[in-house]
Design a protein that fits this description.
With 285 residues, the chain is an all-alpha fold. The protein has 2 domains: 117 residues, Orthogonal Bundle (Cytochrome Bc1 Complex, Chain D, domain 2); 86 residues, Cupredoxins -  blue copper proteins (Immunoglobulin-like). The protein is built from 13 helices and 2 strands, in the order ααααααααααββααα. Strands 1-2 form a two-stranded antiparallel sheet. A hairpin with a 3-residue loop joins strand 1 and strand 2. It binds heme C (HEC) (2 copies). One heme C (HEC) binds next to helix 11.
């Protein structure tokens, strides 16, 4: 090997080792302050902002947006925005709820966001959420069409005065049938899908209470471990373990056992089928 090549290789390997060691020191020593009252350091903030931007850009380039200037769509979007978004992001003349003020990173005023992001990018952010921020994924709570409704409303939001917003809110309150319900049963469109089920376990908080093999973060003992659930004779000790009963338990545990500590999580029929498909892969052997 030529001497200059050896120098290049040694320098690169040395720098990589130093970077790894400094990273490990920061993580294991505990010097990085995770409290939400302290802003990230400028470098980490920049890193998070840049990864957010690049990540969203890479994933949305060819999603076509439907027509967003339809008045009905904008009205539906307003109702959905009031039911699901204003609590964190605020609106003209309306502050976010107190809990949202304590989030770091702070939820952006969306008046600015529509200038920075394209409609397709906003749709993606709402649908999939943003990891390591408080921004939830709405994929399991709103349909694609409803998300476009919200995007349509966000597009006109910067032109709203506080008085406009209040007027729309009053008008909406007079129409009790408006589509504000955040949770809708989505239709069953296909047989249970193991991969989709594994993902849904996170979006219905199953992972915060159960140990579930092969699922990152599912290491809690609030409920029983779901390892080997496919081989068990009974579900929760009361229901014979059949696929139909599994769906019943996942969708409505308190109907099966009013005293159970497992809450009703408003799991849609399709998502319950997907979750059950995954749970039946958890065999003891
Ligand atoms: C629990 C609080 C919370 C709720 C509810 C919430 N968001 Fe967010 N949202 C956040 C946080 C935190 C961020 C990340 C910080 C940031 O970039 O604003 C964020 C980011 C965003 C962004 C990217 C903003 C930007 O310019 O970087 C958009 C767009 C957005 N949210 C839209 C919505 C919409 C629409 C809804 C309702 C369907 C909603 N959010 C509901 C907390 C929330
Ligand atoms: C807040 C905690 C909590 C959450 C969230 C939760 N569970 Fe449970 N789960 C429990 C408890 C507690 C039990 C035991 C119930 C009983 O025996 O009454 C249980 C029981 C079960 C059982 C029966 C286990 C057995 O050994 O028979 C299954 C299956 C199950 N949960 C699946 C799920 C799925 C799927 C989700 C997400 C959609 C979920 N759980 C969310 C607490 C939780």
């Amino acid at each position: 090997m030529k001497p200059w090549k050896r120098i290049v290789i040694i320098t690169l390997a040395g720098s990589a080792a130093i970077a790894t060691i400094s990273g490990a020191i920061v993580v294991y020593s505990g010097i990085y302050d995770v409290s939400a009252t302290r802003q990230h350091t400028a470098a980490v903030y920049h890193l998070l902002e840049t990864s957010l931007r690049r990540s969203v850009e890479m994933r949305t380039s060819d999603t076509p947006a439907p027509a967003l200037d339809d008045a009905d769509r904008i009205h539906r979007g307003f109702a959905l925005f009031r039911a699901n978004c204003v609590q964190c992001h605020g609106a003209p003349g309306i502050a976010p709820k107190p809990f949202a003020l304590g989030l770091t990173p702070a939820p952006a005023s969306l008046l600015d966001s529509v200038k920075v992001w394209s409609a397709a990018e906003i749709h993606w952010i709402i649908k999939y959420g943003i990891k390591m921020s408080g921004m939830p994924a709405w994929k399991y709570r709103l349909t694609d069409e409803e998300i476009w409704d919200v995007v349509a409303f966000m597009k006109v939001l910067p032109a709203f005065s506080p008085a406009d917003y209040r007027r729309w809110a009053v008008r909406q309150a007079r129409q009790p049938a408006s589509p504000t319900a955040p949770i809708r049963p989505h239709q069953v469109v296909r047989a249970g899908d193991i991969k989709a089920g594994k993902q849904a376990l996170q979006q219905y908080l199953c992972i915060t209470c159960h140990v579930i093999p092969d699922v990152v973060g599912a290491d809690h003992h609030v409920g029983p471990s779901l390892a080997g659930i496919a081989n068990r004779k009974y579900i929760a000790g009361v229901l014979p373990n059949t696929p139909a009963n599994m769906l019943r338990w996942i969708r409505d545990p308190t109907e099966v056992d009013p005293l159970t500590a497992m809450p009703d999580l408003d799991v849609s029929d399709q998502d319950a089928r997907d979750i059950a498909a995954f749970l039946y892969t958890l065999r003891d052997d």
